[in-house]
Write a structure and sequence with these properties.
The protein is built from 10 helices and 15 strands. It is α/β, with parallel strands linked by helices. The protein folds into 3 domains: about 80 residues, 2-Layer Sandwich (Alpha-Beta Plaits); about 110 residues, Translation factors (Elongation Factor Tu (Ef-tu), domain 3), CATH 2.40.30.10; about 140 residues, Rossmann fold, CATH 3.40.50. The chain is globular. The two termini are about 40 Å apart.
Length: about 425
């Protein structure tokens, strides 16, 4: 049994800047706003953090799962953490620490040094699920490999394809980029992501941080049987306020030529994974480049059609216009009895604005059938703002049938069957 912490000792929660990919998941997840960031690091304020662990399960890299025993009067400040390039080592606690015994203090140190997942497990609060989706994968999901390559030892991949997948006459410049790893082991699963290290330095002269991209290809490669993968990347030319801004990594990737090499870290992600058991249904809801993991899952199902093990596929795909919808041509060539496709176009002059949540309501009967099937998993990927609309639409479908959405929502989360990946 783990010893209690002495009153003057703090088990301080820290984020490893060498592993963190600055995806903002931890800051969005923290229920008490203990996590913040600047242009360099994500940090935890020791004066606010209560060790609730809500931020740990959603972190795709595990960088959030770090802890140090320190005297409360010597806790690492937010300002100190902002200046770190790597985590500090363990500090030796002074002999005067009034632990129950010397052996107890040693036990505490050994537990914390093993990482937050096991640290002080006897008294640690139960992890808090995110308000929207699951923090565990479906029960039948394959085992993912994560963090095989980091900032100090990235894998090197070669560009073997770079294709624009939206019409040339649109402002939405989205590319399908294929990276080959040759003989370098890089096992991935649908729903995982990788980090790309763009060359150059930022305004402070530091190397650019990695940017995270979801895989657009299935586990056996963009080209089946090859050690490669694909990404769906939108060239960023303006910020969220519409002001001109050149995205460092997106422009780097979209400008790559065949035979260029890229530094890759990861893979990341152990929850947004597809089920593996026969006849599992997938309901996929996405916008724009959020189509990447949906393409990977759909292609996985397409390649095993002959086995007869697939369940139903239902896709809700949103874009401003048809010309700005990535992969529109290949998507329309898929057999209608293989995937149920529903396109929501919000800027089509020929029809009223429609969003994915509108189509969910329009297809209420079929959506409800899938929701009631325990073999159904739901995946949502796209802009952060779509979460509320999708959840409201699913709730409306269930409530209108006379069922309790609160109960079903809780079941979907606990069983790893409702997943959100938004940005």
């Amino acid at each position: 049994m783990n010893a209690p912490l002495p009153p003057e000792v703090l088990k301080q929660h820290l984020i490893d800047p060498e592993i963190c990919i600055r995806c903002n998941t931890c800051e969005e997840t923290c229920p008490i706003d203990a996590i913040t960031h600047d242009g360099t690091n994500y940090v935890v304020d020791p004066a606010i953090c209560n060790g609730c662990m809500a931020c740990v399960p959603p972190c795709p890299t595990g960088s959030i799962d770090n802890w140090r025993l320190v005297l409360k009067t010597e806790a690492y400040s937010v300002e100190e953490q902002f200046g770190w390039d790597e985590l500090p080592g363990e500090k030796a606690l002074p002999d005067t620490v009034s632990a129950n015994s010397a052996s107890d203090a040693e036990e505490i140190v050994s537990v914390v040094s093993n990482g937050g997942e096991d640290a002080d497990s006897a008294s640690a609060p139960t992890p808090v699920f995110s308000p929207s989706g699951a923090t565990i994968p479906p029960w039948s999901a394959a085992h993912p490999y994560v963090n095989l390559y980091g900032h100090k030892t990235p894998a090197v991949a070669t560009v073997v394809g770079n294709y624009r997948v939206t019409d040339e006459d649109t402002d939405s410049d989205i590319h399908h980029i294929v990276l080959d790893f040759g003989n370098v082991p890089f096992p991935v699963l649908e729903g995982q992501s990788i980090g790309i290290l763009p060359p150059g330095t930022d305004a402070q002269g530091r190397p650019h941080h990695a940017r995270q991209y979801s895989l657009a290809s299935p586990r056996d490669g963009e080209r089946a049987g090859y050690n490669n993968l694909s990404l769906t990347v939108k060239r960023v030319t303006e910020d969220h306020q519409g002001q001109p801004a050149r995205g460092v990594c997106s422009n780097y990737l979209c400008d790559l030529a065949r035979n260029d090499t890229v530094q890759v870290i990861g893979p990341f992600g152990n929850t947004f994974l597809m089920p593996n058991h026969a006849h599992a249904n997938l309901m996929m809801i996405c916008t724009g480049t959020g189509s990447a993991p949906m393409r990977a899952m759909t292609e996985r199902y397409r390649r095993r059609i002959a086995r007869g093990t697939n369940g139903r596929l239902m896709l809700f795909f949103g874009a401003r216009t048809q010309r700005e919808l990535p992969y529109f041509g290949p998507l329309m060539k898929l057999p209608r009895d293989f995937i149920d496709i529903n396109l929501a176009l919000s800027r089509d002059a020929a029809q009223p604005r429609r969003y994915v949540q509108d189509l969910i309501r329009e297809r209420a009967a079929d959506v409800l059938t899938l929701l009631q099937d325990p073999n159904t998993c739901i995946y949502v990927c796209g802009l952060k703002g779509m979460e509320t609309g999708v959840l409201d639409a699913l709730r409306d479908v269930v409530v209108q049938s006379g069922e309790d959405w609160t109960i079903l929502h809780d079941v979907l989360r606990r069983e790893g069957r409702l997943h959100f990946e938004t940005y």
